[in-house]
Amino acid sequence: MTTEEGSIVIVAPPSSGAGGGYHPGGSDEEENQGLQGAEGLVSGSPSAVQGGGVPFAQLQELMTIIDNLRRENTDLRNNLTDQNLVIQHKSRNLEQINENYRKYDEMVKAKHQETALKFKRLKDENQKLKEDLEKHSKAGHTRDSNAGEMVNEEVEKELREQLEEAQNRIEVLEKQGQSDGLPLDARNFETQLQAERNKVKDLQEKLIQTEDLKQKAEKRLKAAFQDLAKIREERKKDAAELQDNLVQEVNNYKQQIQSLLSELAENKRNLSLHTKKVQELHEANLQFDQVNTAYHSKLSMYEEELKKRDVHLEQMKQDYTICNQSLKQTLQRAQTEKHEKQMCEEELQRVKQSLHQVNMQVQLKKGEIDSLTARLVSMEESLESRNQQLVEANEAKNIMQVQLKQYQEDFERERQAREQSHHNNQANLMKLKTLKDQKDLLQKEVDRYAQQQAVQAFGNHRYSHPPSPVTPTSPVYSSTPSSYLPYGGQDRGYDIDEQHRQEMFGQAPNRTYQRVQEPVQQSFHCPMCGEVFAESGSLEIHVNTHFPN
């Protein structure tokens, strides 16, 4: 409403409001009714004015139309806000789907790492079992070797042979004593015989002890074999349990993969549904653009109608000038209404601005829809890559199963090779022990033979040799025949000690000797190669070369 020189001009605002929104629930009939009401207000003639209250009623109807347009604009804003919230919700859903895919990827990687760690742990346990079996095997074979060293059939056989040889030597000595016509020392013979008997007794005791040790060792060996069998059964049970656990874990992995595949299919279905919803929103935005275009066309029509109404109001101004006197009373009210009209115009301007903002938001939503479409394409590509990763994970699992089987076969071959090597080493140790025992026996025989030779040489010198001018400590011992002895070759038992005693007291007989025969050189033969040595020490050194330590 504008006042010019006391006249009042009423201008009806457009029903849609400048820049006002579009209400999807409103119809064209309601808009036409609003336009008709506005035209009725404008086209009213001065004769239709009854008193001073009619123009105010028309302005009230105009304000009602403006309020309706405001409500429509508010509803349009609310609708756009709801659509924006829906789009935001869909965006959050897409982000949640991305997050789910990321978690799924992390879960697959974690499962792969966990599987690798389990295979590594199984491999370490397998190695540990190998070491334990090797330790127990070594311990069992050590006990076996100790028992074999304590109780050896060959040693027992050698002891029996030594016993028989000692008995044979006793018989030979007795026969020698009976058949030999020379006078022998009975005490020395009895001493040798008693020594041989003691040796026989010692050998018998050793044989009894050896049999006892053999029985004890057999018992310990049986117990060791039983322990080893129990340990092997326990290891077999542990290996079977580990294999069952591994099969169960593989089945669990298969079930988890199947559940993940079903979740992936469900996510694909949800993604297709969200894609359809986004397409529907895109189509709704296109429809909204069409409606907005129609709304702007109607707005231009309303502006033209307003111009016509302005012309009509100019004509009405003349009519209102006639009734100026009657309207002076309502001048104050008209001024108030003028202020309200200005407020309505300002509101109309704000509605135009809000419509412009809505158009800008629509453009932004179009860009967001394009970005969402691009994200959908990228998500489909990521799904394909995840499927490829699942296929690679299955192939890696099959390869690991083949490697585990190969490890088990290698373990069996290594165990058999170790057992064969241990048996060979055990046989070599037994041979070495036998050779050492033979060496010790030969060494004892050589020592005993040397001792017997020395004793025999000393006896021959004491009872068969003539007195010698050399000292008793001289190493020269001669075997002089009876023709070289004084007094017709008779041996009167004249020993060196008696001669020395008589010479000291001046009672030594005046004996004459024709000559002294040189002592016979004694030789020693090697029982292994037959080589001849002059001394027993050289023979002992030579025998040690046959049996190196």
UniProtKB/TrEMBL annotation:
Annotated GO biological process: regulation of canonical NF-kappaB signal transduction
Annotated PROSITE patterns: ZINC_FINGER_C2H2_1, ZINC_FINGER_C2H2_2
Transmembrane segments: none
GO MF term (any one): K63-linked polyubiquitin modification-dependent protein binding
GO CC term, one of those recorded: nucleus
Classification via Gene3D superfamilies: Nemo cc2-lz domain - 1d5 darpin complex (1.20.5.990)
Compositional bias (Basic and acidic residues): 132-146
Keyword Zinc belongs to the record: yes
Superkingdom classification of source: Eukaryota
InterPro entries per the UniProt record, alphabetical: Optineurin/NFkB_EssMod (IPR051301), Znf_C2H2_type (IPR013087)
Coiled-coil stretches: 327-452
Chain spans, region Disordered: 1-40, 132-160, 460-480
Domain C2H2-type intervals: 524-549
The entry's keywords: Coiled coil, Metal-binding, Zinc, Zinc-finger
The keyword Acetylation is annotated on this UniProt entry: no
PANTHER family according to UniProt: NF-KAPPA-B ESSENTIAL MODULATOR
Name this protein carries in UniProt: Optineurin
